[in-house]
Amino acid sequence: MPAAIFLSPEDAEHAYYEALRAGDTDALMAVWSEDEEIACIHPSGPRHVGPAAVRTSWQQILANAGLQVTVSQLQVARNPLCAVHSVLEQIQVEARPQARYAFVLATNVYMKEADGWRLVLHHASPAIGHEDTGAQLAQTHRLH
User: Which pTM was predicted?
Assistant: First the structure.
């Protein structure tokens, strides 16, 4: 099966978040570059470098289900070969007895490669000032 081709960074980002929602690691990794220098940093976590390490980190996070994530406040910096997207992610961390959310600031960097736009960096951190007042998360809770 041929690899997905993303004609714009926005196409790649849409596929990235759809894969997260679906809990589909293969679809998620299809968005990432195959370059050994790709990096992924989850909130309060270490830096994962290279496709194998990035895949393993997402497999652990998505092992039980997809993430219920809503993306807003997109800011874009772009040139013909690179796009930097800064977003606010709202992630549902609890459904019962009531929905509770964590908020994460994420930076996604896309590079234009021979086969279209690919993700090369995802860096996420807790969004201070956007906390769900009803959610009391343990410090060790992995958002993604």
Answer: 0.86
